[in-house]
Amino acid sequence: MDREQYLQMRRTGQYNIGWFYQYFLDNKDKSRDTPPFEVFQQAFQMYFRMNMAITIEMLDKKMEVTTIHNKAGQLIYIN
Q1: What is the DSSP letter of 30?
Q2: How far apart are CA 51 and CA 36, in angstroms?
C-alpha cells in the first residue's frame, strides 16, 4: 500500500474506504473468499467507527509513521 496516501488520509482525517479495501485485498488470507466492495464497505465502516483508534495505531506501526501530539493530546505532526 502507498504510505503517502495513508499519511495524507491521516493528516486530513478523510479516510478513503477504497484504500482500506485495497489494503484488505493485499493482506487477506488468499484461501478465503473475497467479499464484494459493497459488503466490505458496510462491515468496515461499522468496525472503523467502533475501533478507529486501534486500527490507526496498528497501521501507523506498520507504515512506520511518526506522530507528535501536544499536551492536550491533539495531533500536531505526522510523518
Answers
A1: T
A2: 22
CA gap 38, 10 in Å, rounded:
23
Q: Exposed, middle or buried by CB within 10 Å (0-12, 13-18, 19+), for 4?
A: exposed
pLDDT tens string 1-54: 689 999 999 999 999 999 999 999 999 999 999 999 999 999 999 999 999 999
b/e code 49-75 from CB counts within 10 Å (16+ = b):
eeeeeeebeebbeeeebeeeeeeeeee
By CB atoms closer than 10 A (0-12, 13-18, 19+), residue 20 is buried
Distance separating alpha carbons of residues 38 and 70, to the nearest angstrom? 38
pLDDT of residue 55: 96
DSSP state of 78: E
- Residue 77 main-chain phi, psi, to 5 deg: -150, 140
